[in-house]
Amino acid sequence: MWKTIVRRFLIMIPQLFVLSVIIFVLAKFMPGDPFTGLITPQTDPARIAELTEKAGLNDPVHMQYLRWMGNAFQGDFGLSYTYKRDVGALIGERALNTFWLSLLSVILLYALAIPLGILAGRYQNSRLDKTIVLYSFVTYAIPTFVLALVFLFLFGYQLRWFPTSGSVDIKTQVGTLGYYWDRFYHILLPSITYAILGTTGIIQYLRSEIIDAKSMDYVRTARSKGIPMRKVYSKHIFRNSLLPIAAFLGFTITGLLGGSIFIETIFGYPGMGQLFVSSISSRDYSVITALVMLFGFLALLGSLLSDIIMSIVDPRIRIE
Amino acid sequence: MKKSKWLLFAALFSLLLVLAACSGKEDGTATEEPADTDTEEQAEGAEETTEDSSELFEVSVTNEGEAIEGGILQVGMVKDEPFQGIFNWELYEDAYDSELMSWTSNALFETDGDFMLTDEGIASLDVDQENNKATVKIREGVKWSDGTPLTIEDVILPYHIIGHKDYTGVRYDTQFQNIIGAEEYHAGTAETISGLKKIDDLTLEISFKQLSPSIFYGGDGLWTYAAPVHQVGDIPVAELIESDAVRKNPITLGAFKIDKIVPGESVSYVKNEHYWKGEPKLDGVVVKVVPSSSVSVAIASGDYDLVTSFNATKMEEIQDLENINILGRPELYYSYVGFKVGKFDTTQNKVVTDMENSKMGSQELRQAMGFALDIEQVSEVFYNNLRERANSLIPPVFESFYDGELNGYTYDPEKAEALLDEAGFVDVDGDGIREDQNGEKLEIKLAAMSGDATQEEIIAFYLQNWADVGLNVVLSTGRLIEFNAFYDMVQADDPEIDMFMGAWGTGTNPSPSGLYGEADQYNFSRYTSDVLQSAVVAIDSPESFDTDFRAEQFKIFQEHLEEVATTIPMQFRYEIFPVNKRVKNYNIDYADATEIHEIELVADKPVAN
């Protein structure tokens, strides 16, 4: 298995290389450049030309690519054109924000979806099941921004249960307990919103797996041995039904850094999703390429993780 | 950005936003604290401004009640992304950073209602036109927020930052090169800028190659901010932008100083006890980024005392609220429709006008297209009159130069048709669409920027306006164009473009140079003529130190472009400021804005609706 993992990592190198070429070239194909947005009637075209030249944007694309590659190998992804900061530090800051938000979202998501899925599967066709299925269809149909806005207005502004924007209140002292509590408090409402909207897939998978498992031979065997129904569910059916969910776990883990543009924009939370979208519209090449490379790497890593997880939870699967 | 700043109507022209806001804010900071003007003439001007804007909005508000001791002003800054956080006047790029810095300010000068520098600020300016020299003299006793006295070295430092070869901002430009020795310093052949001469601890003499009236607006290379030598003097210019002195704890001159920053989200300020005009009445200010999707509810909930960069299209959501007053003022902005009548010759760096061979070469055709547009209806229906038909390429805020008597192209389809008939654009094949003067099919390609759904409707409406007078106008590329692509195409004189709709934020210097001169790349319609060029040059010439002469040249410029109609002004717009009833006094008049150290509150918390 270790061999396989090492091999998978080695394969990633050409994959990421191809990705980097594609994204680099495509980014340059976009009209405009990072300086287009700076133009005002007072801006001197000669100065813009000078800055463009200095930034090396007039060089042939392959030259720019090689230069970028050389620096990237040394861990230097350049300066963001928009934020004028080291891309690594900028992404790091946003990634941390996004990581905590996503982590809480995913915890809440599983905490909500797994029990609902189990209940729906176990009590198939009951009123409870129908309610859960209806719930999952409704949340599936609601656009993220609609629910986010409704929750924000209701729980944020009307009831005042949650803060309405940002990642932390500026009044709190960094490093104190109050600061960490406040950060947690700020991500709670966005996380709940995200969790409620994301449940459909898990509920549906779990429900149908459980319904299938109920008629399986091993369940009948367990029952015939006199094992109580409760135990059959918790020991036998549950573990098997989680397989499809485990299959996505790797992607879920690496997806923690992806961020959600809607949630971030509506809750005014500086995260990765926003950074990605805004870097594209402002032609912030260094940020675009670094982010795409990061997301690409995470996707590959996620699929590897998923395979590893599957081999652990399902002994029938062996990575060769 | 802060320049981007860049911001009111997200819907229309998303780039314009950027453009307009940038420039608007860039110089706008200077308007934060204008002083009362001395002369009678200027004072009258100020009153007129008030009347003009009050046609739609109040520019100032006074709320009843006894002022509380201190208090924290809560400010919401509408923005859907984190702010950049470059707190340095030499380096910042977008309007939002400029807005954040306006509370701390390092401005040396104050400005009057015409945006001209006055002697009321920290520094005074004395211009010697004969010898192309200007003398900047700072007040004695002014201190930085850490208590260190301001010296003339602090005034000189910014020039050496901007002029430095490692400086990466846009401000090292031809204007800056107007300072004698700036180019040598930039090239690295001189240690300092030779045109800067320290006279004594409070006085700096600057020598320029050629002065123009722009210097009175802070142009010509004059820099109007100070930088603290004792904080940033030893930081290499290349490292400055990432330093804590710029990102975290800048030392400043204004009424407040930065206390804490949550990157991208909020900034809290405390009062600057060393402020030269006296201790501010507030204890502090907190500015927080508010997403545009929830700003109206936040205002209603009483979360903020002031809201800046409020999107005027959301006016309806807040206009009936009782916990706020809505102030408004005309913006330094105009939108326009331009016609391509030539090319830009990049080898000779000049505009080459070619009316003969341009599809839009007929003056009657261009004029007719202007008369055919029902901009009045668009302003009313889509913008709730927060925009109005523009009659000139100079926004009316610039009272001394704006020509109020211009008719502009008010909606008049009959006149449009008459002009077209007269010029020979008639429908010869009977399909309801006019052919060109030679009887050939005429298809005019319009480039317009993409925005929100409203933008699509508006452009469709304009196309219909033209169809109503028999003109076949289609969209270049078949759809609205994303802003980066739009400017790329317009600037490259793409053959897909016969005409285009854009906008400019003018900044506080109304001079048309840069946009309408014969060597200007941003002269997008590529029109130049002797009359136009002589007016553009004259406006910034030494003769124009005589304001009457300058005004006359502005008049010639506006009238000439109105007549040839290569660029037809479309709309002016208003910016609006919701102010909570907790704020005792607030005034946004360019000529008479509230001084921030005098803001007071009348309650412990903002009033909720």
From TrEMBL, chain A:
A Pfam family the protein falls into: BPD_transp_1_N
UniProt-listed InterPro entries: BPD_transp_1_N, MetI-like, MetI-like_sf
GO annotation terms (biological process): transmembrane transport
Cellular localisation: Cell membrane
Keyword Secreted: no
Any one GO cellular component localisation term in the record: plasma membrane
The entry's keywords: Cell membrane, Membrane, Transmembrane, Transmembrane helix, Transport
Keyword Magnesium assigned: no
Membrane topology note: Multi-pass membrane protein
SUPFAM superfamilies: MetI-like
Transmembrane annotation, as ranges: 9-30, 99-120, 132-157, 184-206, 242-267, 287-313
ABC transmembrane type-1 domain segment(s): 95-306
CDD domains in UniProt: TM_PBP2 (cd06261)
Family: Belongs to the binding-protein-dependent transport system permease family.
Full protein name: Peptide/nickel transport system permease protein
Lineage: Bacteria, Bacillati, Bacillota, Bacilli, Bacillales
UniProtKB/TrEMBL annotation, chain B:
Family annotation (CDD domains): PBP2_Lactococcal_OppA_like
Keyword Calcium: no
One Pfam family from the record: SBP_bac_5
GO aspect biological process, one term: peptide transport
Segments for region (Disordered): 27-56
Keyword Signal: yes
A GO CC term attached to the entry: ATP-binding cassette (ABC) transporter complex
Signal peptide: 1-20
Sequence ranges of Acidic residues compositional bias: 29-55
Domain Solute-binding protein family: 124-516
GO molecular function: peptide transmembrane transporter activity
The entry's keywords: Signal
Protein's recorded name: Peptide/nickel transport system substrate-binding protein
Native species: Ureibacillus chungkukjangi
